[in-house]
Structures are given as structure tokens and as C-alpha cells.
Write a structure and sequence with these properties.
The complex is a heterodimer.
Chain A lengths: L5 E6 L3 H13 L3 E5 L2 H6 L6 E7 L7 H10 L6 E5 L4 H9 L4 E4 L4 H33 L3 H11 L4 H8 L3 H14 L5 H10 L2 H5 L1
Parallel strand pairs in A: 1-2, 1-3, 3-4, 4-5
Helix pairs in contact in A: 6-8, 6-9, 7-8
Chain B lengths: L1 H20 L4 H49 L3 E6 L7 E4 L1 H7 L3 H4 L14 H12 L4 E8 L5 E12 L5 E10 L1 H55 L4 H27 L8 E3 L1 H18 L3 E6 L6 E3 L1 H19 L7 E10 L2 E8 L27 H11 L4 E5 L5 E8 L7
Classes of the chains: A alpha/beta, B alpha+beta.
């Protein structure tokens, strides 16, 4: 596996576990960052790399599940492997429902954690790719004029040119011109592709 | 008529003497005579009143006897009177409850010796004891198993006391017998519930204890395992003997982990069994269970049960465990506060979907420094506490989809309160 381009985060309030996991993962060629609390992880400047988070559920102040929710708010997108000394079935179900890659009861073997990390990193790759694409679409959207942006919204909702024209109170010709420019600026070859872009940045769902 | 004659004779005598003294004093004489007449008339009237009073008194006494008889007939206790002057202690009166209680008819009881009613099944020692007590002119008080005429068993609380005449001689014995079978049954049921609850609490505490211990031990085991496996990784193909030793460490680490896993599955907390519950009935039952404890500590428990509360989904025993735990904590908090005795349990509707139960005491309150650790495992402020009660209570309430919190009251003491959603835990 290409481990050079990946970073593994470990958040566990037990210093010894942080150190031991750090040693184990480094010996496997990973870059590792360890934190004994959630705040430390949140304030860390995350490089744009493939990554995953090994997260203890019981943490002081902010527990694992709460950190998971906070990560979304902070725009930190990295797959999570939960670890816990209290592992019971309802808790693991909750973790998996919340989108965790795996849920490992302590103590776990090297084999198990490496397997989970492999899964998490491939997920991370997909997530990063999506994130880059979304970023590109958003950058292109920034070049649209207010008029064009409005037309983009209507098209995203699947409206026909004549409907947009009557709604805007302008001629069909004007709308055609705007639409042409939107397609050009957004680098969309077809209307379907344009709608797909809108979906990826969450335009269609918020407009319904 | 006789009275009148005496009166006229007296008047005549007075008249004569007055004439001798002065003729002009006639007006004075008339006045005096009128006064005397008035007094006489008054005396006569009083006599008549006295007769009327006597009649009234008789009527009143009759009424009172009537009321007393009625009262004795309407009570559920069996009441009987024994003639003390006869050596076989015959019953001379028994109310109707006595007959329904014993199953014997009036003709089988009245005039017959009281002790004949005990029959062959009776405990002879007790019968002899009662006889002995009565012969000594003392009162008897005791509870015993008795048999009705048809052989049916019942528990009887019996009190017999001597009745003395004005000279202090015992003329009768009056006895009251109460059927305590239902009370006994209820006491036994309460005792059974209390024991069940105690058992569940003990098992729960042990499970929680093991679970916490397992967590504490799994932390270093995790670290040891990772250290050893990192060491193996770093050695690569060097030092085969050292790598073998590291493998032994790994194997034994996993053996220890397995022991913990087995222990935990053995003491796995019983899955709560959810049923439809009336929170007020549950609160009432729990208060009944702990009542002897409260009375013994000279405290008073007050219930403020909200009206028309919706039913909840919950585990009866687990929720009782929570309430019991909160109540006994409150009692302990009030232990050293001599002037505090009030413990309030209130149930209410917090909002349309949530029921709230509060346990408010007037004890020492929660010290500020204990607040953050209050619900943690192993945290206790009691010398003999395990630090399990509140943490178990919180996990029970959370398994029901609710929350358990605590606050100090503005005046004194603390309030622990928990919520339970009306529609149950959605995760269940």
C-alpha cells in the first residue's frame, strides 16, 4: 500500500495507548499524529492527505460521538475507526450507523487495526476526490454573474427555458444566451452534467 | 292544696303582726308577700323541670346505647363479651362480624365457653396462655393462626381486656378480633418485591463493577499488545529469539483479554424487559417498599403525583431500582441534619412526550467539588460506598431514552430528577 501519502490520527485519553499505537503504526510506515483529547485534534491543521482517525469513544469533555459531529462542522473529512474498552452491541451499531469504518473492542491485534486502516484510507481517497471536485465546481460557480447564477439554479431544478423566461419575465432568447454562458463557465458539456454539478454542491436538494 | 293552706295560715299570722305595728305599712306588706310568692312559684317550677330533665336523660342514655350497639354491629372487627364470673368463660354477646369471621352461628356461640371455639386444630399452648392471662385478670394481645368452623385458616389479631365494676371486681372480658390475613399477604408480597429488587441491585452492581474493571484493564492490555507488535515489526528479520519472546507477550495479553471478555459476557446485564407502566403506581409501590426504612429514620416522605399522566414503556424493576437508589441517597443526605425530615417525590409531565420524576430532599446538598464526578463509576462520598448507585441509575435511565440530573435546591438539600419519554426509547 502507498503509505507515504497517508496520515493516521489517534485520539485516546490514555497516553500509553497513544504511544503504543503510534509506535505500531509508524513501524508500518505510516505518518501518525496522536492526541489525548478531542480539542487537540480539532485545532490541528489537517494536511490534504489520505487520512483516517482511530478514535476512543470514552473521552473526557467531548466523547468520540460528539467529536464525530464536531468534525463535520469543522469541515474535517476523514473516515473513523472507533475503539473502546466498553464495547457492547448497541454501541457498535450506533457507531456504524454514524458512518464509522469499523468498531474495535480493546485490545485489538495489529492485523485487525491494519485491515480497518486499509479500508478507511481507500474511503478517504474517494472522499478527498469528491471534495476536490466540489471545490472545483464551487470555484467555477464563483465566476457566474448574479443573473447566470439564478439561471443555473432554475436549470438545476430541471426547468425548461420557456418556463424560466416566463418566470423571469424576459424573452426566451435572453435565457438561451444566459444558459449558454452558464454551460461554458461551468465547463459542462451537457445539461445532465450541469445538473450533476448542482447535485454535488447540494444545490438541487436545498431548492426542492 | 296542702301548700295553699300553709300559705294562707302564714299570711294570716303576718297580717296580724303587721296590723299591730302600723296600718300604713300595707304597701310594704303587699310587696313582701308578692316576693315570697314569686320565690315559692320558682321553687315549684324547678321541681317540674327536674322531672322533665330525668326523662330527657333517660332518652339520651337510650340513644347512646343504641349508637354504641350499632357501632359495634357495623365494625369489621369481631367483638365479644365474656362473663368473667363463670369458670367456663361463656360468651354473652358477640357482634355479627364475629359470626362471619369465625363461621359459627349465634346459637353455637352465645352461652358457650369461649375456649370451645378454638377447636382441635388450635395451638394448645396459645389457648392455655390466653386462659392463664384471663385468670390473672390481665389483658391479652397477640396474633395467631386460627381456623374457621369450616377449617379455613385465617390470621387473627386478638385483644382481650377485663371489665371491672365500681368495686374493682372483674365482671366481664371484652375481646376484639381482627382478620389480618390480607395484611399479612400484602406484607409478604412487599417483602418479596424488596428482596427481588435487592437481588437485582446486587447483580447490577457486580455487573457494573466488572464492566468498569474490564475497561480499566483493557487499556493497558491494548497498549502492551501494540508495543509488542510494534517491537516485532521493528525487529524485522533480526533477533529471532527476542521476536519469539514478544510473541509470548502477545499471546498472554490476548489470553488476559479473553478472560475479561468471558467474565463480561457472564455478567452481561439483563436486557431490560419493557412493559407499559403507570409511573404513579410505580412511585407509590416504591415508596411503600422503603416506608419502614423511612419511618425508622424519623423522616417523612411526601408524594406529589401528577394527574392524568400518560403511560410509559419501561422496565419496572430497573426503574424502581433508580427511584430506590435516589430515595436512599436522599435519606443519607438528611441523616445528620436533625431538623430536616421532608423528602418529596413528584411526578409530572415535562412536555407532551416526556414524564419527569423528581426526588427532592432537605439534606446537606451536593458539594460543588463533587458535582462533575457525581455520576462517574467508583465515585462516592460515603465511607462504605462503592460508587456504583448513581452511575447504574444513569445508565438505566439512558437505556430508557431519558436523562438523570441533579441540582442543589435554592434553600437547602438537593433534587435529583430523571425524564422518561412517553413513547419509549426509539432505539429499542
Amino acid at each position: 500500500m502507498s503509505t507515504n501519502a497517508a496520515i493516521i490520527y489517534v485520539v485516546d485519553d490514555d497516553v500509553s495507548i497513544c504511544r503504543a499505537l503510534g509506535l505500531l503504526l509508524k513501524s508500518n510506515g505510516f505518518r501518525v499524529e496522536t492526541f489525548t483529547n478531542a480539542q487537540g485534534f480539532l485545532s490541528f491543521k489537517h494536511p490534504k492527505l489520505q487520512s483516517c482517525l482511530i478514535l476512543d469513544i470514552r473521552l473526557p469533555n467531548i466523547n468520540g460521538f460528539a467529536l464525530q459531529a464536531l468534525m463535520a462542522q469543522h469541515g474535517i473529512i476523514t473516515p473513523i475507526i472507533f475503539i473502546t474498552g466498553y464495547g457492547d452491541i448497541p454501541m457498535s451499531v450506533k457507531a456504524m450507523q454514524a458512518g464509522a469504518i469499523d468498531f474495535l473492542p480493546k485490545p485489538f491485534t495489529e492485523k485487525k487495526i491494519l485491515h480497518a486502516i486499509t479500508l478507511a484510507l481507500s474511503k478517504s481517497k474517494v472522499l478527498n476526490k469528491e471534495q476536490t471536485e466540489v471545490l472545483k465546481i464551487k470555484q467555477r460557480m464563483n465566476t457566474l454573474s448574479p443573473r447566470e447564477l439564478e439561471v443555473f439554479h432554475f436549470v438545476a431544478q430541471g426547468m425548461m427555458n420557456k418556463n424560466i423566461a416566463s418566470k423571469r419575465g424576459t424573452s426566451l432568447q435572453t435565457i438561451k444566451v444566459h444558459r449558454g454562458r452558464v454551460m461554458q463557465k461551468m465547463q459542462a458539456k451537457t445539461a445532465t452534467e450541469l445538473i450533476d454539478f448542482a447535485k454535488k454542491v447540494g444545490l438541487t436538494s436545498s431548492q426542492v | 292544696m296542702k301548700k295553699k293552706t300553709i300559705l294562707s295560715q302564714k299570711n294570716k299570722a303576718k297580717d296580724l303582726s303587721l296590723k299591730k305595728k302600723t296600718q300604713n305599712n300595707l304597701a310594704e306588706t303587699v310587696r313582701l308577700q308578692t316576693d315570697e310568692l314569686k320565690i315559692r312559684e320558682g321553687q315549684l317550677r324547678q321541681g317540674a323541670d327536674r322531672e322533665k330533665l330525668g326523662a330527657d336523660r333517660e332518652k339520651l342514655a337510650e340513644e347512646q346505647i343504641h349508637i354504641r350497639t350499632k357501632a359495634m354491629e357495623s365494625t369489621a372487627d369481631g367483638i365479644f363479651i365474656i362473663d368473667a364470673k363463670k369458670s367456663d368463660f361463656p360468651i354473652i354477646y358477640a357482634n355479627s362480624s364475629f359470626f362471619s369471621l369465625t363461621g359459627y352461628s349465634r346459637s353455637e356461640v352465645i352461652g358457650k365457653s369461649y375456649f370451645l371455639l378454638y377447636g382441635f386444630n388450635a395451638n394448645l399452648r396459645i389457648v392455655e396462655e390466653i386462659k392463664q392471662t384471663l385468670r390473672l385478670g390481665k389483658s391479652f394481645h397477640g396474633e395467631m393462626l386460627r381456623f374457621k368452623k369450616n377449617g379455613e385458616k385465617y390470621w387473627c389479631l386478638l385483644r382481650i381486656a377485663p371489665v371491672r365494676n365500681v368495686k374493682g371486681v372483674i365482671t366481664h372480658y371484652v375481646g376484639i378480633k381482627t382478620d389480618t390475613t390480607l395484611m399479612k399477604q400484602r406484607d409478604a408480597e412487599i417483602q418479596e418485591q424488596r428482596e427481588e429488587l435487592l437481588h437485582v441491585t446486587r447483580v447490577g452492581k457486580l455487573a457494573e463493577f466488572v464492566s468498569s474493571l474490564a475497561h480499566e484493564i483493557s487499556q493497558p492490555l491494548t497498549a502492551i499488545l501494540s508495543y509488542a507488535q510494534a517491537g516485532q515489526r521493528l525487529l524485522k528479520d533480526r533477533e529471532p529469539q527476542l521476536k519469539e519472546i514478544l510473541q509470548y507477550i502477545i499471546n498472554d495479553d490476548q489470553r488476559a483479554a479473553e478472560v475479561i471478555r468471558r467474565l463480561r459476557s457472564l455478567l452481561k446485564k439483563n436486557k431490560p424487559t419493557f412493559e407499559t407502566l403507570d409511573i404513579n403506581a410505580l412511585t407509590n409501590d416504591t415508596a411503600t417498599l422503603i416506608m419502614p426504612h423511612i419511618t425508622a429514620k424519623n423522616k417523612v416522605i411526601k408524594l406529589e403525583l401528577g394527574e392524568n399522566l400518560p403511560m410509559i414503556q419501561g422496565d419496572r424493576i430497573q426503574l424502581q431500582q433508580v427511584l430506590l437508589n435516589l430515595i436512599s441517597n436522599s435519606l443519607e443526605a438528611m441523616e445528620d441534619e436533625k431538623d430536616s425530615s421532608d423528602l418529596l417525590i413528584r411526578t409530572s409531565l415535562k412536555n407532551a412526550d416526556t414524564i419527569m420524576v423528581e426526588v427532592k430532599d432537605s439534606g446537606c446538598g451536593i458539594p460543588e467539588e463533587n458535582k462533575p464526578k457525581l455520576f462517574s463509576h467508583f465515585f462516592t462520598s460515603k465511607p462504605d460506598g462503592l460508587g456504583m448507585g448513581l452511575s447504574i441509575s444513569r445508565s438505566i435511565v439512558e437505556a430508557h431514552g431519558g436523562h438523570l440530573e441533579a441540582e442543589n435546591n435554592p434553600d437547602r438539600g438537593a433534587t435529583f430528577y430523571f425524564t422518561i419519554p412517553v413513547h419509549g426509547n426509539i432505539n429499542q
